[in-house]
UniProtKB/TrEMBL annotation:
It comes from the Bacteria. This is ABC transporter permease. InterPro entries: ABC_transp_permease. Keywords: Cell inner membrane, Cell membrane, Membrane, Transmembrane, Transmembrane helix, Transport.
Length: 354
């Protein structure tokens, strides 16, 4: 028996060309936003396209991108990390303390460290704070929002206690201990590109490889997409959650190191509100707040959008208050667009099955 033929003039089941075009634009929204923002400030902001300004923007983007990469893994796994800004501040203070004083052994001696050792110690500090977040969430069943909010306050308080709220100045280092190269982390260049940008590139490439080419990456997406289903399929959910928060802490430690090196000073208020920029970059880059979806490449583009937007508004003389409002609107808009994309994709799937 032959299958029924649709009446003449009727449309076959499946997504319309308009729907497919809209869905494609929604998927490419971050690139579209980047082009529009860049083009706008190229015309509206004086000296925006100068080499010096591009260098400054690249440094700012590198810092936000590093935080956002760690945040992407956390959000994809179904969590959130509000503590990264405070981890930045605390790790910057740890770096400043090690450069200036080392570790006093209380016996008339002190341990002094070279630049590499300082970087390793600070990275370990960031990873340990991330581990604490992970333990609170996995072992004590504290909601990620509450756990990382508490860590935000604890880490910021610890940063203030490090110096009674004062700044550690003049982090030039000591050539006798090999710490005089500390300043190169934030101010050095290679092939004309700041080292901070190279650090971001290396971390981004490793994170992208981890997300797309390794079992750990697949498990992160599985946990965020369906935690119970991932557990039933043999994924160690607790271990994955511990990993993503430790990786986020590691990224925050790198940012703390870079900022302390760039400024050659450490201040306990370093990193305030950085977590908002990281979340904005990740969400704008297509990371779903409900978990299970997100790409490192999209996050990097999102970080560029946030960085260009922030620096462009400053160059145009826009009030810092309005800058905060605009960033908030960007986050809201990104979440709304993401919801629209999910509903449209679900509709396309249903049409394809009809």
């Amino acid at each position: 028996m032959s299958s029924p033929v649709p009446p003449h003039g009727s449309k076959a089941a499946g997504p319309s060309s308009q729907t497919s075009t809209l869905l494609l634009l929604l998927k490419m929204r971050t690139f579209v936003a980047l082009i529009l923002v860049f083009a706008f400030f190229a015309f509206a902001a004086p000296n925006f396209l100068t080499g010096a300004n591009m260098l400054i923007i690249s440094k700012h983007v590198a810092l936000n991108a590093l935080l956002a990469i760690g945040m992407t893994f956390v959000i994809v796994s179904g969590g959130i990390d509000l503590s990264v800004g405070s981890i930045v501040g605390l790790c910057a203070m740890v770096a400043g303390w090690l450069v200036l004083y080392g570790i006093d052994l209380r016996i008339g001696w002190s341990l002094q460290f070279n630049t590499l050792e300082i970087c390793v110690i600070v990275a370990i500090a960031g990873i340990l704070i991330g581990l604490i977040n992970g333990i609170l969430i996995t072992k004590l069943n504290v909601a990620p929002f509450i756990a990382t909010l508490g860590t935000l306050y604890v880490a910021r308080g610890a940063a203030l206690l490090f110096s009674d709220g004062r700044t550690f100045p003049n982090l030039a280092g000591n050539p006798d201990y090999g710490s005089d190269t500390f300043k190169l982390i934030g101010s050095g260049t290679w092939l004309g590109v700041p080292l901070s940008v190279w650090i971001m590139v290396v971390v981004a490439v490793l994170a992208a490889y981890l997300a797309t080419r390794t079992p750990v990456g697949r498990h992160i997406y599985a946990v965020g997409g369906n935690e119970r289903g991932a557990a039933l399929s043999g994924v160690n959910v607790d271990r994955i959650k511990l990993f993503v928060y430790m990786f986020s802490g590691f990224c925050a430690a790198l940012v703390g190191l870079i900022i302390a090196s760039q400024l050659q000073a450490s201040h306990p208020a370093t990193g305030e509100t950085f977590e908002l920029n990281a979340i904005a970059a990740a969400v704008l880059g297509g990371t779903s707040m409900s978990g299970g979806r997100g790409r490192i490449g999209g996050t990097i583009v999102g970080a560029f959008v946030i960085g260009i937007l922030a620096d462009g508004l400053i160059m145009m003389g826009v009030s810092s208050f309005w800058q905060t409002v605009i960033k908030g609107l960007v986050i809201i808009a990104a979440v709304v667009v993401d919801q629209v994309q999910q509903k449209l994709q679900a509709r396309v799937v249903l049409q394809g099955q009809a």
